Amino acid sequence: MQKPPIVLPVELGVSVEDLFRPVDREAVPELADLLDLLAERHPLVVAAVADVDRSLIWAMQENAPLQNLDNCSHMARDVASITAPAPSSQSDRPAA
Amino acid sequence: MLSIEFRKLLEALSQAGAEFIVVGGCAAVLQDVPISTFDLDIVHKRTPENIARLLSVLATLDAHFYPDFARRKLPPRASDLAGRGHILLSTKLGRLDVLCELTGERGYAELLPHTTEISADALHLRVLDLPMLARVKTEAGRPKDLLAVPIIIAAYEERKKRG
To answer: What's this model's pTM, rounded to 2 decimal places?
Structure first.
């Protein structure tokens, strides 16, 4: 799978290969059955692990679990407010 | 506008003494999985006592079935919570999906060994662990569930690495 062309200065000490990696089966032996099942039924899902930006996970790990939940609530509220129908849409309805 | 207060919703359920497991997107987020979700999913213990506790707190949360185009605000009944289906509710603190069972006829008792405890302040939560979360989403096989599986797997691997 082709890696995205992300520019990372050497000084950061992190490479694109660190950010985007396939699953290391030896590191998660308890997922062996699941990975076998996925490989059989949904091989693209296994391949897609290599497409997950792990820096997003590292950022989550910096927070307490409930802080992440609060951030998730906040994000969901923001999206809901953006996608909520405008009040004026009521007047667009045909008269009864 | 839709209210979304996952922490307050969990606090209300916990303070009422309801026994439940956090599953779905919120379970993932609580374990460092970078996804977004718009509802809280729980699997509850289906004993008459727990269902009574749950119904009581759901009433205080103004919980009712959705979609509710006719604005009838139909509340859940004990028989709904004692069944095997998914009860999708709107509350004053956001959407709450009360699930009697997950894929594979997994109810509270079957899922309990696959949970992890997350505590903060006075809140003590039972949360479905990432390997089981990935498994139920895989077995569900729906595209929206499968989308989250690679992220759950990567997050679990990073979580183990961090120890």
So the answer is: 0.92
Residue B95 C-alpha, separation from nearest chain A C-alpha, in angstroms: 11
By CA distance, what is A74's nearest residue in B? B4
Which pair of tokens denotes residue B2?
């839709």
| Interface contact A68, partner B, CB < 8 A | yes
Which ipTM was obtained for this model? Answer: 0.92
Angle at A55 between CA A53 and CA A57, to 5 degrees: 90
Please judge whether B138 and A66 are an interchain contact, meaning their C-beta atoms are less than 8 angstroms apart: no
Judge whether B127 lies within some domain. yes
Q: Is residue B163 part of a domain?
A: no
Q: Which domain holds residue B12?
A: 6-155
Indicate whether A85 pLDDT > 80: no
Crossing angle of helices A54-61 and B143-162, rounded to 10°: 60
What are A1-15's pLDDT values in tens digits? 677 788 999 999 999
CATH number of the CATH domain containing B138 = 3.30.460.40
Decide if B162 is inside a domain. Answer: no
Asked, for residue B161, whether it belongs to a domain, the answer is no
Strands B64-65 and B86-91: antiparallel
Longest dimension (CA), chain A: 67
**Min Cα–Cα distance to chain B from A11, Å:** 22
Per-residue pLDDT, averaged over A22-29, amounts to 97
What is the residue whose two structure tokens read 């595209």?
B143
